[in-house]
């Protein structure tokens, strides 16, 4: 089984299908065969066998419905009672004929939907073949939407999504209207961005990619890093390294009121393995008491972390951050720009500055630049707004949340889902900032050679952060400090492969 780590847009997928279709490769038959195999496996798991099962196939107007109808026909031939529900005025003709020949039945969906909803809710498996890559992202309209609502109200059965959960925004993961959440998605040829991107990705359940021999052109639209990618990205010290070659990180974080943010940020950087951490601010005593490795005061650095625990009315920290931003612009020092420092961002920085906002903070960054969007708007379309912030500021943007979305130079986009929800706790963002700062300090020269590397390093930080949270306490509450403490072991583990 292949884990989905790269995704292509619907346009890339359609273009990749063309040469195969022109050569007469029976893509739909192959897709449908694989869909029936995975559905049969689900039925065996759910009820111990295939024959005698009840499957309801929701069929839309296009080829997605065609896949579902052919898979239904194959299941019917194995003794499954298959009912197709035709949700549109047209349905794939040959697929429908195949299903009827195999002994399946078909009903046309119409209001009221109760009878069909009861049939679907009582099925062992529902195949969702309403919409695939032809969906416009506005959810399921009209009677299809009413049917899904009625099925969910009765208790959703096991759902297998055909190619993708119907109605999701294929390329952006939008979830605007009614969508039937799936337990399993069987996706064909190449995975689509909505299977990784928030908020839609959660609707997909487990994702299985069926190889149809497609070879999409161009870079994948959205990538998810895997632990095996980390070794090539991590600044592992060379045998002859010394602390200055490994990188020095300057941290402007915390204040008298928020000393903990300074302690967590510097502690995470020390544990992530940077050459040296310099701290600037009013929490130096607390920082050194917690981490005697940290040096308080000015000096040359390769990268910065600005902002954790900095309030905009703290004149001293504000001055330090504004001064250090000049170094970022003039000398090319890298920077993580977090929390209070986001408000101090110059109009245009390069991708070697990485913003780490949550949705509310990103909305503020954008509204300061004339966009009209609030937190809910960012949460509804995280990729769109992370990209927009990258366009407007030039910075790499890491948008925090249940799935972390990174948008950077040369169209680089990552979607990382490595963390347990327990990580949503005060101070976790400070730990991420320190960890990412350490990565940037170690690789700032490489970031200048390839500006899209900043996005890959940001995704790496999200991956290690999430895994450290699991390591800190696999299935229960975690403190931000415990996440920082888990970093050395987590990093050793992912580097070992
Ligand atoms: N190409 C191949 O060889 C292979 C393709 N394969 C399969 O084909 C699938 C793509 O098929 P497809 O292109 O027919 O699109 P699909 O999503 O089934 O229907 C789109 C139609 O639905 C409509 N519609 C749109 N949005 C809507 C909404 N919100 N609410 C309601 N209706 C809406 C819209 O119609 P309109 O409204 O414009 O009349 C549009 O025309 C792909 O996902 C994969 O499963 C595999 O077999 C492998 C080989
Ligand atoms: N539901 C969730 N599941 C997994 N990780 C989450 C979830 N919600 C938030 N996170 C992560 O938790 C961290 C919270 O950071 P942040 O919002 O900056 O908190 P703070 O400012 O208190 O440190 C981020 O890394 C974010 O991606
Ligand atoms: K579908």
Note down, in words, how this protein is organized.
The chain is α/β, with parallel strands linked by helices and 497 residues long. The chain has 2 domains: 6-220, YjeF N-terminal domain (Rossmann fold), CATH 3.40.50; 227-496, Ribokinase (UDP-N-acetylmuramoyl-L-alanine:D-glutamate ligase, 3-Layer(aba) Sandwich). It is 43% helix and 15% strand. It has 18 helices and 18 strands. The protein has helices at residues 10-22, 27-47, 63-77, 93-101, 114-121, 142-154, 227-233, 243-246, 259-272, 284-290, 315-330, 359-367, 375-380, 382-393, 428-449, 453-472, 480-485, 487-496, and strands spanning 6-7, 54-59, 81-86, 105-108, 125-129, 158-162, 184-188, 206-210, 222-223, 248-252, 276-280, 295-296, 303-306, 334-337, 353-355, 396-399, 404-407, 413-416. A 9-stranded mixed beta sheet has the order 12-11-10-13-14-15-16-17-18, with helices on both faces. Strands 4-3-2-5-6-7-8 form a 7-stranded parallel beta sheet, sandwiched between helices. β11 (276-280), α10 (284-290) and β12 (295-296) form a beta-alpha-beta unit. The mean pLDDT is 96. The site of ligand NPW has 26 residues, from α1, α2 and α3.
């Amino acid at each position: 089984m292949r884990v989905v780590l790269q995704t292509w847009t619907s346009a890339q997928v359609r273009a990749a299908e063309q040469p195969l279709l022109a050569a007469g490769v029976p893509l739909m038959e192959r897709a449908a065969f694989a869909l029936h195999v995975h559905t049969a496996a689900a039925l065996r798991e759910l009820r111990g066998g295939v024959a005698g099962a009840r499957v309801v196939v929701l069929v839309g107007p296009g080829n997605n419905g065609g896949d579902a109808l052919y898979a239904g026909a194959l299941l019917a031939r194995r003794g499954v009672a298959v009912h197709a529900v035709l949700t549109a005025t047209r349905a794939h003709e040959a697929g429908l004929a195949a299903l009827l020949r195999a002994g399946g039945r078909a009903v046309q969906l119409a209001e009221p939907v109760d009878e069909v909803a009861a049939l679907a809710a009582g099925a062992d498996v529902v195949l969702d073949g309403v919409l695939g890559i032809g969906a416009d992202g506005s959810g399921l309209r009209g009677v299809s939407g009413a049917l899904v609502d009625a099925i969910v109200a009765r208790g959703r059965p096991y759902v297998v999504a055909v190619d993708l959960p119907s109605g999701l925004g294929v390329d952006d993961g939008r979830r605007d209207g009614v969508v039937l959440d799936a337990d399993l998605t069987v996706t064909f040829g190449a995975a689509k961005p909505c299977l990784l991107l928030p908020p839609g990705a959660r609707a997909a359940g487990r994702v299985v990619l069926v190889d149809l021999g497609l070879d999409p052109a161009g870079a994948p639209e959205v990538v998810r890093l895997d632990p095996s990618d980390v070794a090539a990205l991590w600044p592992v010290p060379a045998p002859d390294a010394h602390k200055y070659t490994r990188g020095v990180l300057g941290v402007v974080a915390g204040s008298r009121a928020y000393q903990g943010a300074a302690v967590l940020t510097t502690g995470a950087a020390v544990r992530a393995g940077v050459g040296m951490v310099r701290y600037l601010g009013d929490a130096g005593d607390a920082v050194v008491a917690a981490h005697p490795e940290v040096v308080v005061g000015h000096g040359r650095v390769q990268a910065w972390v600005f902002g954790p625990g900095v309030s905009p009315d703290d004149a001293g920290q504000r001055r330090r951050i504004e001064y250090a931003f000049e170094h970022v612009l003039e000398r090319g020092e890298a920077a993580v720009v977090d929390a209070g420092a986001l408000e101090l961002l110059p109009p245009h920085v390069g991708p070697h500055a990485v913003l780490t906002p949550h949705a509310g903070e990103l909305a503020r960054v954008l509204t300061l630049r004339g966009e009209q969007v609030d937190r809910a708007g960012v949460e509804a379309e995280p990729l769109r707004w992370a990209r927009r912030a990258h366009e407007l500021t030039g910075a790499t943007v890491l948008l925090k949340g249940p799935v972390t979305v990174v948008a950077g130079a040369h169209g680089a986009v990552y979607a990382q889902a490595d963390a347990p929800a327990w990580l949503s706790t005060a101070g976790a963002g400070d730990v991420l900032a320190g960890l990412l700062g350490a990565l940037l300090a170690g690789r700032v020269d490489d970031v200048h050679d390839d500006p899209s590397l900043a996005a890959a390093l940001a995704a790496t930080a999200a991956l290690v952060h999430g895994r450290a949270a699991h390591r800190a306490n696999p299935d229960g509450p975690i403190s931000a400090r415990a996440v920082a403490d888990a970093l050395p072991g987590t990093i050793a583990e992912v580097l070992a492969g």
